[in-house]
Amino acid sequence: MNKIEHIGIAVKDLEKSNTLFASLFGQAHYKIEEVLTEGVKTSFFKSGPNKIELLEATNAESPIAKFIAKKGEGIHHIAFAVDDIVSEIKRLKKEGFIILNETPKKGADNKLVAFLHPKSTNGVLIELCQEID
Fold this sequence. Notes:
8 strands
């Protein structure tokens, strides 16, 4: 794992949250993107070298909708940049981590993504991200 790629924050209202985080960072988001397969609309902010991804559910069955119903708004996941997501999945599986999707899928911000189950990472949902060439 190379670095923290971004921190994902589940929000109820993306428009209101964009206003809040624009005030916090002193600049507007740089991208809004919908990921239909996950039932989520995302918004990305930069703060120095760091990125924050806001996530709003687009339907009641979305993992984000379920997360908010259970835990409320807040930090949803920490994403790590990797060079080779397939190799990293194999390595982590061998180490005993529970992989939620062993086949990487297209995520937001031009990334291939895979997730580690929080049960195997002290309650933290971990996302692996590899830039799509």
